[in-house]
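Hi team, as promised in this morning's meeting, here are the two structures we talked about. I've kept the exact order from the run log so nobody has to guess. The first one is mostly here for context; it's the second one we should focus on when we meet again. Sequence first, then the predicted structure tokens.
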Amino acid sequence: MKKTLMLGAVVAAASLSGSAAVIDFEADAPGLKPNGWSPVGHPTVQFSDTAGTDLLVGNFGGQGIGQSLVVFDDTDGSKLQIDFTVPVDSLSLWFGNDDPGWAGPTDLAWLEIWNGAVLLATVNSPLNLDDIMNQNIGWAGQCFDRAYFWYGDAQGNPFTTGPSGAIGLIEIVDRIEYVHCQRVPEGGSSLMLLGIAGLGMVGLGRRWIVRS
């Protein structure tokens, strides 16, 4: 079943977005990074390449926003793995390099949310195929400790195919926002409770597609 929901201003006022941490990679030295790497200022977040060791921080022009994180090489079907040593309940990221020569109209950006061995959510977003970082994807709900992001086909396989005939599209991500898990205080307002419940499906000002 596919659900598409929008979040209004009432829930926006009740959100926890003010406590979000933001990873923009601007303080990180450019170059290759090992699996399990944490960016400056975010020791509880670890990035890995699921197929190989091909993480790279650099400036990719309009495909990113200043310095960004790239996952080479997608002919091997790699995904970006994001681990949180302290659980979070909200994650969003911007993505680029959606090159129309390397992906088609049915290819998607995918995000999986895991807590331990339990898959909590699978989110996807169409690619606008303009090769520019101007789209984002995310999820918020119960606490989780791992996420995967990748470009794939309509079934979620980590391969794309464009007019060039090449298989695989390299992921570039930036502006990664996350919120550590927080308990709702006893006696909290119904507005706050509504906000947290609503964030389980959608994000502020974003149109997220959730498959379950």
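And here is the second protein, the one for discussion:
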Amino acid sequence: MLWETLERVNRLRQEALSNQAFVDSAKEHEQALQENDGLETNKRRRKKARTKSLSQVYEQSEFGFNPSGVEH
């Protein structure tokens, strides 16, 4: 089955390459792709910074320290 498919595809490829209209169309398509290739540049977008959670904001703070020593 695989060989039959390969033979069929190869036969169709050879028929297409013998058709001058197909060859001309393929050349035009190749030129169009080359022209468009230089026009578009994919720029990477920067990820937006996430807002910090409260635990991240107060991570380095010490709330257990009482400098006066007086309890309420």
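Starting points for discussion:
The chain has a mean pLDDT of 85.
The radius of gyration is 34 Å.
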